[in-house]
Amino acid sequence: MIQAMIGHETFFLRSVKIFANFGLLLLLSTHSIKTVQRNTEWVSEKTLFLSGLKVNPSNAKLHNNVGKVLEAENHHQEALLYYNRAITLEPNDVRGFLNAGRVLTYLRRYQEAEKIYRKAKDMLPQVEDLSMTETHVTPSHLQVFLSLASLLSRNTSRLEEADAVKYFFRF
Questions:
Q1: Residue 62 in contact with residue 56, Cβ under 8 Å?
Q2: How far apart are CA 97 and CA 113, in angstroms?
Q3: Is the whole model's pTM more than 0.85, yes or no?
Q4: Residue 75: what are its φ and ψ, rounded to 5°?
Q5: pLDDT in tens, 53-95
Q6: pLDDT in the model for residue 170
Q7: How far apart (Å, rounded) are the C-alpha atoms in residues 114 and 120?
Q8: Which domains does the chain have, with CATH numbers?
Q9: What angle do CA 32, 36, 42 make, to 5 degrees?
């Protein structure tokens, strides 16, 4: 009887070991396959960001990142689509407006670029009395004014207007 119990325990322990080893092998295999698949997504920034969009299509930052990659590849029209999608997803993020304005300027669609920059400018914090209130200003906020001023200065009849925009933020 004792021998039967010992034999049964030994069989049970062997079964558990085999099952554990099989589970570990299965886990390592699936993770290895997933790693190899994921490595193809890391081939370039573009493939990485596009794979991120498959998982999270409502991430405005990923749309901006894909747009920047496309812009660097001189695919400006396609980049503009991603920037506009980023603006739709995050209408309070100035960066999408800056990116779209830059591409529109490059495409010589100056009126649309000015409209985008002015929308971004209108989103910035409004302060009536600077002596009584603190305002958080980021580099993106400042870039809005520089980009708008640069765009306006392309037209020599609007140089004074460009100067007025450029010097709006004096500290």
A1: yes
A2: 9
A3: no
A4: -105, 70
A5: 999 999 999 999 999 999 999 999 999 999 999 999 999 999 9
A6: 47
A7: 10
A8: 44-166 (1.25.40.10)
A9: 135
